[in-house]
Structure prediction request, 665 residues.
Amino acid sequence: MKNKDLSRLERILFALLCLVNLLPLLYSRWFPSMDGPAHIYTANIVKEILKGNMAIKEFFSLSLLVPNLTGSFLLSLLQFAFPAWLAEKLLIALILILLPVSFRYFVYSFRKKTTLLTLAIFPFTWHFLFMIGFYNYSMGLSLALFALGYYARTREACSMKEAVVLGLLTLLLAFTHVFVFAIFGIMWLALLLGDMAWFFRKTDQKTFFTAFINRYARYLIGILPGVLLSGAYLLKTAGNSVSTGTDRFLSMGEHFRWLFITRPLVIYSMEKEGVFGGIVAAVLAIWTAVSFFSPKKDAKEKKSKQFMRNFLLAGTLLVLFFYFLLPDYKAGSGGHLSLRLMIPFYVFFLAWLGTRKLPQWLQALGVAGILFSTVMLWKVHLPELRQMSLEAEALVQAGKRMPAGSVILPINAGDHWLQPNFLNYLGAENSLIILENTVASEGRIIRWADPKANLSRRFGDNLMFEDTALFDDPLVQNRVDAVIIWKADRKNREWLHFSEKMLDNFTPYDTVCADYGWIYIHKRYKPDTRTLLKWPEPVPPRSSAFFVLAEPRSGNDEFFELVKKPLIPGYKKDLIWYRFEISMYSDSMAAADSVYLTCMIENKGKTVDYDAFAVQADTFAGRYRMEYHPPFKTNEGDILKMYLWNPARKELKLLSGKGIMYAGK
Prediction:
């Protein structure tokens, strides 16, 4: 295919994929992640401070001259015009568009002819750190590509205008993310050394020093503000950071394994996603091998660009060297360092491959394989996002039912690795003071105006229900209006002591997300004071009996079927769940034997969803309860089955049992 036709095809496909890449954002209302809720709540706080909300200002202050603020500031501006869920979607869409556009700009800064490898960047827009809410990091990566591409295009002119523009880009990058600024520094120094080497070869040695100063001094001065800002921030955080634990390193085998499966593309399940990451790694390996046997020179391109490509590879390999050298977790600084280095390595390595000469058929075949892997990864990611989006929406609605200005004590007892900041969703669309905010605790765009409110610093990173000392704290006793408990195990032996301590000052008020969470309000709010009349009375969910065990049953069958009923299809707005209670007894089972309370949904003989609760024989002779939450949308032909699985096939007595279906928001 002629270069002109290939260029037209590449532009059309690139624009089309930029749009298709946004489609997953339509799958769920919220885009749940680890840091996403903290960003949304922080943006709402910034908005309220800018509006002059005195209740918020009592607890939080604004700080605009610190790095890592661009994403939160943009999100707060968007929230002036859009609801929180849409503002976050717009910010995410901006990130998803910026990375491929900046990557394409960077690649064509080093080559003139068209390449299809610019299309291979799209799976890397959904990298691990982006999916856990590192929005500033993701935006910073795009800015670094723009800045490096701009330098590569303007380095020969080296006028004051180009130096100023580069300086502004790097200063914006420093305000966006300091770590990515360091990555930019590594790559820029590699390109700078390459340019210096080329300049030395082509310049008369007698005038070299003067020409050298004129050529590079402007650029060095231009990026100086970004360097000073980043350096000052790092020195300050190093002085204030508290080292927790020890550094953790990946083994050499784990380092290579991550490279073989393209670890930045694996988010939720190594087992399900690793094979598709392996396809991407295989394509990159094949492209690399073939590139060394392809012609290395193109007569139509400048020799300086060909020379600079070698230093682009050198900078990329230096990033890879730091990936092997640095710990995955640095005590006092944070985790995911290996991934923070892997992602730019893949991006710059793919850019280097994009500068190589490869057969067009091999480019097309490799891009097809990479895009196929992207679609298959979406099939794993999107159901996970939708389920967490339902929980996020339940918390947002619970927060909107609270009076503005309420002080909330969040207790997150859940064990989901992506949900440590999930309770920040309470303040997504209401001006609440939530006494746990990682952004404020780290002193970024917002800070705690009252250090006593920084409970996570005083009581530990995550406020858990083992921290009964919380309720002896004067701030909690005098200022907290409500406590929310999220996903606590009430069977935990610590729960009884915790609840007794909490109920001295707080009383139960409402539930969240089908009994996932519980809200308690301070006892100073009595019905006759009318203080909390803005809080609507909790509406109990609609319920109906699903089955009742009419008479005791016994036997040694492997399966005791309790209920088998078709489900009503098309539930899209109401949250449906089922509660089963079984009382059973066995005097023949050994202590190691178990019985499983099992729920499943079948459709045309295929299992659609499944959940089980194990009960060991040594705890028998009691009543056991299981709650089952099926997929949010039920389909025609879905059948709910609930049974007891008795794999030991020993005598089991069912004394009583019932099942109740609940429907409610």
Observations:
- The longest helix spans residues 360-400.
